[in-house]
Specification:
By secondary structure, the chain is mostly helical. 61% of the residues lie in helices and 5% in strands. The protein has 20 helices and six strands. The protein has a two-stranded antiparallel ribbon with strand order 1-2. Strands 3-4 form a two-stranded parallel ribbon. It has a two-stranded antiparallel sheet with strand order 5-6. The longest helix is centred in the N-terminal third of the chain and has 36 residues.
């Protein structure tokens, strides 16, 4: 076919170059945004008298027909039309003739693609925000069921202090809450309309950019035409936000993989979210969690691809920037694939309460509380730390827990120890005495859960 830009050329593009240059394979997903942007642009051209009003009306009417035909699967895109923009313009021109040729007045594919990608990413970001709300809700519900489920907390993957599984779940709630806030902030910076920047230097036509921005729901317009066509910060920022979401999913998945092992046995995945082995009949593998952990790497890779692609590009637009779409599309698809299945996985898994408590009982997770007990009796903390350190060494040598020591054994380390130490080092006391804001105590956790529920209920998904 003849290229819409082919007037300057006297030789057909090589077929391999057509294939190499074309982006329709992946940017066709932006057809809805492309048509919506073109409708707004055509209406503005007609309003401003830049093209005849009847031509603008014909363009708008046929673009709506094309959108309907695409939705119904009645349109076949062409590789040699290069991209979604040229494909739609070619279809439009074939259908309504010269009027269709007027659509591209006052714009370039450079600002057109910048518009489309911004609109597309805002739509997708809104979907992911909704998924994050569901993820937060799932974690809060899991926490509500486990406010009394005591488990070991870890540092360096070594048992440290007892917490509750509810407190652990609420830690991830806080992570995903930050992810939600980051996405909303990213969407705000994406919500700026670049159309009217032209190829790089604007246009001599008296466009009404604010009118187009208002029609498309943008909060403002870009203030520099060079930046308008060459800015992909919003793509990189979203890729970063998505990478952090995947990092949080991967961290929890890693813990679930560990906890579902025989050595921990803290959780058991539902059969519907596990797989078996083709050779070992006893196996029940946490493949969903492992795949989430594995897919995190590709999202990180997409972020690095975008950063690397943009790092050496002079102003303004360069063809390199066509490479922005596949990485961000893949990251979006991956996150949208992982979040729902992650929610279903943790919603259906069995929490082995007794094994978690048994895990908290071992490993001297109450040692800090024993030291705090001595401090409250008047001993300086560093001295108390040394006393309990010696006590732990003794327990290890004699295969005992701190709470299993007799009073005589206790007093051999410090004569200020009394019978009330046994209550002080019980798991319930260790957890519930940590009642500062942000601590694992039951009352504090329940307040955190209520606050989280209030936040989640305050989110208006439709408005967002």
């Amino acid at each position: 076919m003849d290229k819409l830009w082919g007037g300057r050329f006297r030789k057909a593009t090589d077929k391999r170059v057509d294939d190499f240059n074309s982006s329709i394979r992946f940017d066709k997903r932006m057809y809805r945004q492309d048509i919506k942007g073109s409708i707004a642009h055509a209406n503005m051209l007609g309003k401003q008298g830049i093209i005849p009003k009847e031509d603008a009306d014909a363009i708008v009417s046929e673009l709506k027909n094309i959108l309907n035909d695409i939705e119904n699967g009645d349109v076949k895109f062409m590789i040699d039309a290069e991209d979604i923009h040229m494909n739609i313009e070619k279809i439009l021109t074939d259908r309504i003739g010269d009027a269709g040729k007027r659509l591209h007045t006052g714009r370039s594919r450079n600002d057109q693609v910048a518009l489309d990608i911004r609109m597309y990413l805002m739509d997708e970001t809104a979907d992911i925000e909704e998924m994050l709300v569901e993820t937060m809700s799932t974690l809060v519900e899991l926490a509500k069921r486990n406010v009394d489920t005591i488990m070991p907390g870890y540092t360096h993957l070594q048992k440290a202090q007892p917490v509750t599984f509810a407190h652990h779940c609420m830690a991830y709630y806080e992570m995903f809450k930050r992810d939600y806030a980051r996405l909303k902030e990213c969407r705000k910076r994406t919500n700026v309309m670049p159309l009217g920047s032209g190829a790089l230097a604007g246009t001599t036509y008296m466009l009404d950019r604010e009118y187009v921005a208002d029609m498309l729901g943008f909060e403002g317009v870009t203030m520099n035409s060079l930046d308008g066509v060459s800015d992909r910060d919003f793509v990189i920022e979203l890729a970063s936000c998505l990478s952090i979401i995947m990092m949080h999913l991967s961290r929890f998945s890693e813990e679930l993989i560990l906890w579902s092992s025989n050595e921990f046995s803290f959780v058991e995945m539902d059969d519907a979210y596990s797989t078996g082995s083709s050779i070992m009949p006893q196996k029940k593998n946490p493949d969903v969690a492992e795949l989430i952990r594995g897919k995190t790497g590709r999202v990180y890779g997409n972020l690095m691809s975008l950063l690397t692609m943009m790092k050496g590009i002079p102003l303004a637009y360069n063809k390199d920037m066509q490479e922005d779409k596949e990485p961000i599309f893949d990251s979006i698809d991956t996150v949208k694939l992982c979040l729902p299945v992650f929610c279903d996985m943790i919603r259906t898994m069995k929490v082995n309460v007794d094994n978690m408590r048994k895990g908290a009982k071992g490993g001297f997770t109450n040692a800090t509380d024993a030291a705090d007990y001595l401090v409250k009796k008047g001993l300086p903390f560093r001295d108390a730390h040394a006393v309990i350190g010696n006590m732990v060494f003794y327990c290890i040598e004699n295969n005992k827990a701190i709470e299993d020591l007799s009073m005589e054994e206790m007093k051999s380390f410090s004569d200020i120890i009394e019978d009330d130490i046994y209550e002080a080092v019980s798991l319930e006391t260790c957890v519930n005495d940590r009642n500062v804001i942000g601590g694992p105590a039951k009352k504090v956790t329940e307040k955190a859960i209520k606050k989280a529920e209030k936040f989640i209920n305050s989110i208006d998904i439709a408005e967002d």
